[in-house]
Design a protein that fits this description.
- By secondary structure, the protein is α/β, with parallel strands linked by helices.
- The protein folds into two domains: 147 residues, Rossmann fold; 107 residues, Rossmann fold (3-Layer(aba) Sandwich), CATH 3.40.50.1860.
- 44% of the residues lie in helices and 17% in strands.
- The protein has eleven helices and ten strands.
- The strands form two sheets. A six-stranded parallel beta sheet has the order 4-3-1-2-9-10, with helices on both faces. Strands 6-5-7-8 form a four-stranded parallel beta sheet, sandwiched between helices.
- Strand 7, helix 9 and strand 8 form a beta-alpha-beta unit.
- Helix 2 crosses helix 3 and helix 8 packs across helix 9.
- The longest helix has 17 residues.
Length: 268
């Protein structure tokens, strides 16, 4: 048993798509979330910079006593998770585009992937592609401007459609039937994406699989919270803490009644 929190980090608000799945699956666990919005997005930054940004957030979460760490960012996972696992004797869970379930489900043999530039450049993505998508055609598209759109809370409406349409159209024309959302920000745009693709594509959000892996490791290492006390939820940000609070309240309505605290971190 462990009353320590699960730590979840992302470059910004996108990892909240993972936070809500972890909270849903493990409702007794204490959760600490860090949005590195002051340095968002990570997806176009040099790898050394991404590692440095990720590492400093992980150190912060470890200083808060976290028992398990979730890197809810595909870019940060690809760049940093192996080195962090070698550095810290704690269980880590990362993100990766859901190519395996997409390949298994595809009937047309054509899979679309929306992700950041750094995710597509990373060795982790290419290994995943070789192992799980051999024999499939992949149409990959960097999600230019989508992270910023989510950070601004513009999840629906004309501006979201204007950003999404040129990214999705080649996939519609290419007969994609499985669309992998390869960035934790993108599930928050699912409603607009579904309006563009209709029934032609199935959207794959990796967050439920990530929460399942968190549950498995909690059981494996016997880290479960006893549940004797009401869990706490703490949110930190290197950016605009008011924006983070508003995003949580507006886009995680099922958690609206849960007690939460928000704090801006200037230096750590």
């Amino acid at each position: 048993m462990s009353e320590a929190a699960i730590g979840i980090m992302d470059s910004g608000f996108g990892g909240l798509s993972v936070w809500r799945e972890v909270q849903k699956r493990l409702p007794s666990e204490n959760l600490i979330y860090f949005a590195d919005s002051g340095f968002c997005p990570y997806g176009t930054r040099p790898e050394d910079e991404v590692f440095g940004l990720t590492h400093r957030v992980i150190r912060f979460l470890i200083s808060k006593g976290c028992k398990l760490l979730v890197i809810a960012c595909n870019t940060a996972t690809g760049v940093a998770i192996q080195r962090l696992r070698a550095t810290y004797d704690l269980p880590f869970v990362g993100m990766e585009p859901a190519l395996k379930p997409a390949s298994e489900a595809s009937k047309t043999g054509v899979i679309g992937v929306l992700a950041t530039e750094n995710t597509f450049k990373g060795e982790r993505f290419h290994k995943n592609k070789e192992i799980h998508a051999a024999g499939k055609e992949l149409i990959v598209q960097p999600g230019y401007g989508l992270v910023e759109l989510v950070e601004e809370g513009k999840l629906n409406g004309a501006e979201a459609r204007e950003k999404l349409e040129p990214l999705i159209q080649p996939m519609l024309e290419g007969n994609v039937d499985q669309l992998v959302l390869g960035c934790s920000h993108y599930p928050f745009l699912s409603k607009e994406i579904k309006e563009l693709v209709g029934e032609r594509m199935n959207l794959l959000d990796p967050a439920p699989a990530v929460s399942k892996q968190v549950e498995r490791l909690i059981e494996q290492y016997q880290l479960a919270n006893s549940g004797d006390q009401e869990p706490y939820f703490k949110f930190f940000s290197s950016g605009d803490i008011v924006a983070l609070r508003q995003f949580v309240e507006n886009n995680l309505p099922e958690q609206r009644t849960l007690p939460k605290s928000f704090e801006k971190v200037l230096v750590f």
